[in-house]
Amino acid sequence: MKRVVVVGAGPVGVVTAIGLARRGHAVTVVDRDPGPPRQGTWTRSGVGQFRHPHGFRPTVHAVLSELMPDVWATLVDVGCVPGTPPGAPPGTVTLRARRSTFERGMRRALSEQPGVQLVVGQAEEIVIERSRLAGVRVSGRVVEADLVVVATGRAGRLGDPFRAEADGGPCGLSYTSRMYRGRPGTTWAFPAVPMPAAGDGYLSIVFPQDDNTLSALVVRPTTDVALAQLRHNDVFDAVAAAIPNLAPWVDPARSVPITDAMAGGGLANSFRSGLDVTGRCAVPGLFFVGDAVLTTNPQAGRGIATGLQQVRALLRLLAEHPDPADVAVAFDAWCVTNLRPWFTDHVHWDATLLRRWAGHDLDLQDRIPSDVVCAAADVDPRIKGAAMAYGAMAALPHVLDPFQEITRALLRTGWRPPLPTGPSRDDLAGLVDRHRSVAPAAR
């Protein structure tokens, strides 16, 4: 039995803690937030994405049903809604839920797990004594540990001195979302997955959730000053009503807003090794998981899915290798093989999408981005199987490689991914300008 400290009680940290406790370790979880109150709103301090919409991919069900099916049952018990996407293979299960509902279920599962202690406080530094890992300093006192798992999210800096710098940077996209609840008597025919529509210069997504709620989201280039005004409630309402993909869901006759319009920024595509600049484990017993390793543009909803994949791999490697330094090297190799391709894929996807939104055509001499290859599946059925596997994260992005030339040939005929009926980005910017000039006092 080892003493383990898991820093971060988000979904990835919770599954890590439960998994290690069930393997006989004594686990302490450290988080600044004590958990949901018995009554009232849970603000989840320090987690900016907590109130923004989330898509829970089939990978979440796959990992939890394999490692801890009772935790999946707890999520369903607190209100998360499982479903199967149309046309998906048997056993493909997604989840509809607000992040707050999902985390309530996770915290309940954590509280019910023997061998786990929650310490509320600020994790300040990794403690090294006599060149060995000794624990974590939490709000001024040392919590001793043989192993430390850092699951602090994308903004965390704990353990930074012991590993190489991250690759990547800002993805160039920002978003605004607002949450709604159906009015009494409104029964939503929710699908099992989010509903995106790639507009001319922007993207809109409807996220079905639990308890008769949904979120509407608009993605824009970070540099788009006009659409940044969507952070104002009245502007968001006016724009959402003009976008066909959003309008039926935000219709005031059918739904009522339950949050303000919420801006999301600082989005990045990044991949960061847990090893030092020489490729070695600087502190045996120190591991990094979740957004501390990989972040991708959240519009594709890969964060929790890739985080839970990491937990599954780390638990397996800890059981296979007695030396924690060997585990760190093996885990890093696993991340390079299984996570870095998603980072590379998103960097290219986002860069080409921004160029297209700026009015440039695809460069047919360059790699065709994954979103375009998947769109081509509607024209060429040979692509469909690979596109479905990629979309469900049942296969890595290279599953689309055999269809690069097929898509390129289709593009040479003049075909381009079709845009849905609705306003262009310039139309929306004009709507914003007109709305601001008519109702400035609303801000």
List the topology elements:
Blueprint: E1 3-7, H1 11-21, E2 26-31, H2 58-67, H3 69-77, E3 81-83, E4 94-96, H4 99-111, E5 116-120, E6 123-129, E7 132-138, E8 141-144, E9 147-150, E10 167-170, E11 173-182, E12 195-198, E13 203-208, E14 213-221, H5 233-242, H6 247-250, E15 255-257, E16 262-264, E17 268-271, E18 286-288, E19 294-295, H7 303-320, H8 324-338, H9 340-357, H10 370-376, H11 384-391, H12 404-412, H13 425-438
Parallel strand pairs: 1-2, 1-9, 2-5, 9-18
Antiparallel strand pairs: 3-4, 6-7, 7-8, 10-17, 11-14, 11-15, 11-16, 12-13, 13-14, 17-19
Helix pairs in contact: 1-4, 1-7, 2-3, 2-7, 3-4, 5-13, 7-8, 10-11
Explain this structure:
The longest helix is centred in the last third of the chain and has 18 residues, at 303-320. Helix 5 packs across helix 13 (425-438). The chain folds into 2 domains: 3-168 and 268-342, FAD/NAD(P)-binding domain; 173-265, D-Amino Acid Oxidase, Chain A, domain 2, CATH 3.30.9. The protein has helices at 11-21, 58-67, 69-77, 99-111, 233-242, 247-250, 303-320, 324-338, 340-357, 370-376, 384-391, 404-412, 425-438, and strands at residues 3-7, 26-31, 81-83, 94-96, 116-120, 123-129, 132-138, 141-144, 147-150, 167-170, 173-182, 195-198, 203-208, 213-221, 255-257, 262-264, 268-271, 286-288, 294-295. It contains 13 helices and 19 strands. It is an alpha+beta fold and 443 residues long.
